[in-house]
Amino acid sequence: MARVSSSIYTALSLLVGIFIGFSIATWLRAHLRICQKQEEILPKPPPNFDDLPPDKRLLFVGIMTAQKFLDTRALTVYQTWGQTIPGKLAFFSSQNSVSKYDIPIVPLERVTDHYPPQKKSFMMLKFMYDNYIDKFEWFMRADDDVYIKADVMEKFLRSVNSSTPLFMGQSGMGKKEELGQLGISSYENFCMGGPGMIFSRETLRRIAPHIQYCLTHLYSFHEDVEIGRCVRQFANISCTWNYEMLHILYHNTSSKADEKLSYIGNLYKDYVLRATSLHPFKVTPHMYRAHAFFDALHARDLRHATLQLTRDASDMDALLGDRRTDRGRLALHPGLSRAPPAGKYDTVAYDFISRSLYSEKNSNPKRGPETATRDALESVVMALMRDANAASRERGRVIDFKEVLYGYVGVDPPRGATWVVDVLMTYKKYAGRKMTVPVRRHVYLQQAFTDVQFREETREDGAEASEGATVSNAYKTLQESLGVGLNLAGGLGGGGGDAENGHEDWVRAKVVHFILPLAGRFATFQRFMNNFESVCLRNDEAVKLAVILFEHAADDAIGDTVALVGELRGRYPHHELAVVHAKGPFSRAPALEIGARQYGRDALLFFVDVDMHFDAAFLQRVRLNTVQSRSVYFPIVYSQFDPATVYADDAAPRDPLRVAEHTGYWRQFGFGIASMYHSDLRDAGGFDLSIVGWGKEDVDLFDKMVRGGNVTIHRAADPGIVHVYHRIECDAGLEPAQLAMCRGTRASTYGSQATLAATLYASPHLLDPVAAVPPAGDSEKA
Ligand SMILES: *[C@@H]1O[C@H](CO)[C@@H](O)[C@H](O)[C@H]1NC(C)=O
Ligand SMILES: *[C@@H]1O[C@H](CO)[C@@H](O)[C@H](O)[C@H]1NC(C)=O
Ligand SMILES: *[C@@H]1O[C@H](CO)[C@@H](O)[C@H](O)[C@H]1NC(C)=O
Ligand SMILES: *[C@@H]1O[C@H](CO)[C@@H](O)[C@H](O)[C@H]1NC(C)=O
C-alpha cells in the first residue's frame, strides 16, 4: 500500500513539477519577448566616453548623413580618417537608420532624410550638447563627403582657446540672387555647411538652450544659414571672417556637374597639402585614394626622420671614434661631390630639362617631359618654395615662384637624385621699405634614397603571409637582386625558393599551353626543344606544347621536326606534345589561331617563338601574371646583340640569360610573346587573320586587349626570357630601299652604340676607308 501511495505521490509530484516547469517557461518566454521587444524599440544609449585617454578628448565630429549613404560614404569616412581623429565621431541620420556595418550611428528621433536637413543639424547639435559637452573641447559639424586630416586639424585646434566663443568655417553671405531673402543683413555671415563648421565648447554651450527656438524660427531653406543665425543671436558671434579659412577648410569649387571629378588627379598640390579638410568627395574610392596618399606622405616623413637620425648617429660615431658600425648609404650627408668615377661607364649622366627633356639613355633622346618627370619637378619646386618662405614672416617678405628656366636631374645610386634647377621668382618685401623684384636662383637639391622596405600582406590564395622566414627571405632575395642589378622580377615573382608552402604548388599546377609557329629552321628548333626539355619536361612542369608547322621551300625539315617531337613524346609520355600541320605559306596570325583552337576556353595559352630561351622562373611568372578574365601578360623580351661583338675579347662562358648593359636590349615595341587565357583571346576578338607573314598581328592583338578594357595588361621587362641572337639574312634580290632597311635592322643588332664605339676606338683603321671621304664635321666647319 505504502509502496502504491508513494508511487502515486511520485507521479503527482512529477505532474506538478511538469506543470510548474511549463508555466515558468511560458511566463519566462512571454517576459523575455517583452524584454526583446523593448530592446528593439529603445535606441542604444550613446557611449559615455568616460574612459577616453586625454589625447582623445579634443574633438567630437558629428557627420550629417542619410540612410542611403550609411553603407558607402559613412563607412568610407569611418574606415579612413575617422580612425585617426583626436577624439570621436558619429553619423547622424534619420530615425530608424541602420547599417550593415559596425559604425557609430545616431538615428535621430522624429528626423527624416528630407532636404533641407535643418532639423537633423539642430538635433545633432543638441545631442552633442546633451551627451558630450563636458567630454570634448571642440565640436564639428561635417558632411559625409569631407576628408579631415586629423593631425593637421589637431595642431590647428590646439592652437586656439576653446573657452572663448568661436564659430569657425568658410564664411558665406549667400548667393547673389538670394541677397536680402535669407533674413541676414549685408554685414552678417554664416559658416558654409559643405566644408564643415567648428564650434568651440563655449559656443555650443551658449546656443544649446535655444535650439528649439531657432528650429521654430526659420527664415530660409538653408541649414547653414539658420545655424549661423542661431549662433549670431545666442552666442553673439559670427563665422570667422578670416580669409585663411579658405585654405584651412579647402573646398574644390567646381561646378555641380564636375563634383565627381574632384581629387582624381595629382594630389601633390600646395592647396591639398596645406588644407586641414578637403571637400567634396562624391565618389568613395577617391576618398580611399586620398587616405592612402596622406598615409604615404606620413610614411615619407617618417623615413626622412629615420634618415636624419641615422646621419646624426653616424656623426656621433665619428666624434667618438667608434668605427664598429657601418651605417651605410643612409649615413651619407647630402653633397655634390662623389667619389671619382671608376671609368667611362661610371659617370652620372644627367637629364636636361627645359621645354623638352633630353636624356642620354632614352631611345627617344629629345621628347616632351613625361608626367612623372613633371610631377617630380613640381614637388622639387614645392619643397624649394617651402624652404624659401620658412622665415617669411620674421623677415617681412614673401618669395613667389614664377617658373623653372631649365634644370638637370641625375641619379647617383649611393646618394640619391640630384637636381640642379634654375628658377625665376619674385621677391616681395612688405615690411619696412616695400619692394618687388624678380630674382633668379640656381638651386641644388638632393633627394636621398632610403632602404627598400616592403611587407607581404596576403597571398593570392587568401592565406595570411607567414611572418618571419618567408618575408625575410623575400627581402633578402630582393636585396640580392637589386645588388646584381636587373634581376628584380626574379626575386619578386615567386621564381625562387620556398616550394614547401601551398601557394607555390597551387600556382605551379596551372598548365601552360605553349603555341609555337614554325617553318623550317630545324637547328634552332632543336635548341628550343633542348631548353624546353630541361626547363619543363625534366622538371615535370605542367605544360603542353603545340608546334604549328608550315612547309618551308628552302629548308624543308618537316620530317626531322616531327621525329624530334615524337622522340620526346616517347621519353615523356605524360606530356602532351603535338605537331599540327598547317597549309599554305607561313603566316603567324593564322598559326597562333590554329594553335589556340587546339585547346579549350579555360586553357592558359602562351605564344612563343622558336628563337626564345627561357627559364623556370619565367614560366612561373607566366602563371602568376595570367589570370582568367583578369590579367594577360605581355613580357618585354631581352634581345641579344651579336655575341661575336659583345664577347669579342671575353672568354667567359656565355650564359644565354645574361642581362647586362651591353649584351642586348629590351624589345620595348615587341608584343609577340604573350600569355592569356583562351577565353580572353576570344573576348578580345582573336587574331586578325588578314595579316600575312610576320609582324603587326601582335600589335593588333595588344591594341584589342587595350581597347577591350576588361582585362589588365601586365607588361614588364622579364629577365627570364631572351631572344637568342641570329643573323638577319637580307635577300640580295630585295628592292634597294627594302634592302637598305633590312641592312639597317641587321646593323642595329650587332651591338650597343657604346660597344660599337669602343670597337672603333680600339681599331681606328676601320675608319680608314671613310677618311678618304671628307667627314661630315669638316664640311660644317667650312
Ligand atoms: C581661454 O579663454 C578663457 C576665457 O576667455 C580665459 O579665461 C583663459 O585664460 C584662456 N586660456 C588661455 C590658455 O589663454
Ligand atoms: C554682442 O557683441 C557686441 C559687440 O561685440 C556687444 O556690443 C553686445 O553687447 C553683445 N551682446 C550681448 C548680448 O552679449
Ligand atoms: C578640382 O576640380 C576640378 C574639376 O572641376 C579638377 O580639374 C581639379 O583637379 C580639382 N582639384 C583637385 C585637387 O582635385
Ligand atoms: C566585360 O566584363 C563585363 C562584366 O564582367 C561583362 O558583362 C562584359 O561582357 C565583358 N566584356 C567583354 C568584351 O568580355
TrEMBL record:
Family, similarity comment: Belongs to the chondroitin N-acetylgalactosaminyltransferase family.
Cross-referenced SUPFAM superfamilies: Nucleotide-diphospho-sugar transferases
InterPro entries: Chond_GalNAc, CS_glycosyltransferase, Nucleotide-diphossugar_trans
Gene that specifies this protein: LOC106812490
EC number: 2.4.1.-
Protein name per its UniProtKB record: Hexosyltransferase
Membrane topology note: Single-pass type II membrane protein
Entry's localization field: Golgi apparatus, Golgi stack membrane
Family annotation (PANTHER family): CHONDROITIN SYNTHASE, HEXOSYLTRANSFERASE
A Pfam family per the record: CHGN
TM segment ranges: 7-28
Keywords: Golgi apparatus, Membrane, Signal-anchor, Transferase, Transmembrane, Transmembrane helix
